[in-house]
Amino acid sequence: MAKNDAVSVLHATLDYRRVIDVPGYDKIPLHPAARFIGTMNYGYAGTKELNEALVSRFLVIDMPPLDEETIAFLLAKNFPDAKKEALEQFAGLFLDLQTKAYNGEISTKPLDLRGLISAIRTVRSGLAPSNAIRMGIVNKSFDVFEREIIEDAAMTRIPATWTKADIFE
To answer: What residue numbers bound the domain in which 16 lies?
Structure first.
């Protein structure tokens, strides 16, 4: 979240005035087609509640957690050369971790779709799948107990015996 000084500049930009008004400079009118999109991963470390004045200037879209169909689509799109059964296991791992995070068993740190995609990419480059998952997902947690839970979940989906050939055509 930006500092209050920066956010206050946004107020005139995002309401009926539609100008960028930085003290000490000329006001800059916005083009009628100008749009602002803000995103927030609510609950992530470093985020805080948005103030009412800022929230009132946006329309809010609450994004639901990723479902199996969406994860499968994203993985298939990123890895068209991967075996469907292998991608189902990676998607299943993400969903397993999402459930554990939702139930408070683990933090959301290892619930990282970019980390999962990066791990699969490194498998394509030659790293063993179990090592790639450890680096891309498991090691995102620095708590030893939590890491064990994540590792157990990963091992049930991605066997230590898997190689690149088990994932890619």
So the answer is: 4-55
User: H/E element holding 127?
Assistant: none
> In this structure, is residue 44 part of a structural domain?
yes
Q: Left, alpha or beta for 94 (phi > 0: left; psi -120 to 50: alpha)?
A: alpha
Tally of domains in the chain: 2
- Over range 61-65, report the average pLDDT: 83
d(CA 101, CA 146): 11
Cβ 72 vs Cβ 83: under 8 Å: no
Q: Taking Cα atoms as reference points, which of 52, 60, 58, 61 lies closest to residue 15?
A: 58
Structure tokens, 6: 């920066």
| pTM over 0.85, yes/no | no
d(CA 2, CA 51): 11
Query: Which amino acid appears at position 9 of this protein?
Result: V
Residue written as tokens 């050369």? 81
Per-residue pLDDT tens digits for 79-88? 999 999 999 9
Q: Report helix, strand or coil for 164.
A: helix
